[in-house]
Amino acid sequence: MSYLKTLNTLAEYQQLLSSTPAKKLVVVDFHATWCQPCHAIAPKYQDLSSQHRHVTFAKVDVEANKETAQHAHVTAMPTFKFFKGGQQVAELKGADPRRLEELVLQFAGTPEESGSSLLNIQGHTDINEFITLNQIDCLNEKENHRVRSIFTKDDSYLESDVDEQLLISIPFNQAVKLHSLKLVAKDIKHAPKTIKLYVNRLNLGFDETESIQATQILELTENDYEENAFVPLRFVKFQIVTNLVVFVQDNLGDEDTTIIKELAFIGSPVETTKMDNLKKVASSS
């Protein structure tokens, strides 16, 4: 299993570097499809992404994303760039697997230092890093308690506005498989009770939640908010997710507003090669 983020635009590249916590290592592999050394070292890079989940590993195809390659002043393939706090801390040119691993170990630090989640269930881990944070949308959020708060580790939180309902649209920057959810409540009375999930549904409004069948409906209890609790999903229905709509219908205490402290998705990215195969099958059918 590999945990590699594919960066398709300069904006995605810059967003990754600017939004990653300062102490978390980001490694970017600049590669090309015609580059044999790139193919030779690719399995090692994939293995490192699985072994060091507190590090973000990304890939840039220099032919498909020329603007980013030029911006990063890449002149040789493969080139691996290492960043912390948005600043480059190291660079490796060429397919040297031993040196690549040495640099990862040198700058990775510990999961605690990087502020990364240690969630791990049946080989699946926290995949919030694959969310496109600047494209998240939420209907009925309070102006001073917005949706991006639930993807941070501080004291902020998301709260509904005129009633208890929330409608959150969460895009992923590549297809993922979702295994389960981890919800953290600010207080149990305001915590979500009934949640409807919709896979790959765009532009869904409150009215549509009544007429469109949900991919899964979750009925939560206080037990689902315990420290070591996770909310399992019907894994077979969440195999290729590029966008997830989360509709919070009510809360446990029948309060006027609903509050969510944190939301984490546990799963794994769909490997790019498999997605390419799916696209080829679809285009030939």
Number of strands: 16
Number of helical elements: 7
Alpha carbon gyration radius: 20 Å
Which overall shape is indicated by the principal axes computed on the Cα atoms?
Answer: elongated
Q: Kindly state the mean pLDDT as a whole number? A: 90
Alpha-beta content class: alpha+beta
Strand content: 25-35%
Q: Main beta sheet, described?
A: 9 strands, antiparallel
* Euclidean distance between termini CA atoms: 28 Å
Please estimate the helix content.
Answer: 10-25%
Low-confidence stretches: 273-285
**H/E series:** EHEHEHEEHHEEEEEEHEEEEEH
Describe this structure in words.
- This protein is an alpha+beta fold.
- The chain is 23% helix and 31% strand.
- The strands form three sheets. Strands 6, 7, 8, 10, 11, 12, 13, 14 and 16 form a nine-stranded antiparallel sheet that branches.
- β2, α2 and β3 form a beta-alpha-beta unit.
- α2 runs parallel beside α4.
- The longest helix has 16 residues.
- The chain is elongated.
Core attributes:
31% strand, 9-stranded antiparallel sheet, 7 helices, elongated, 285 residues
Quick synopsis:
This protein has 285 residues and is α+β, with helices and mostly antiparallel strands.
Question: What's the helix and strand layout?
Answer:
Layout (H helix, E strand, L loop, with lengths): L3 E3 L3 H10 L6 E6 L4 H16 L4 E6 L4 H6 L7 E6 L2 E7 L3 H12 L2 H4 L5 E2 L2 E3 L10 E3 L18 E2 L6 E19 L9 E6 L8 H4 L4 E4 L11 E2 L8 E8 L10 E2 L1 E8 L2 H13 L1
Parallel strand pairs: 1-3, 2-3
Antiparallel strand pairs: 2-4, 4-5, 6-7, 7-16, 8-10, 9-15, 10-13, 10-14, 10-16, 11-12, 11-14
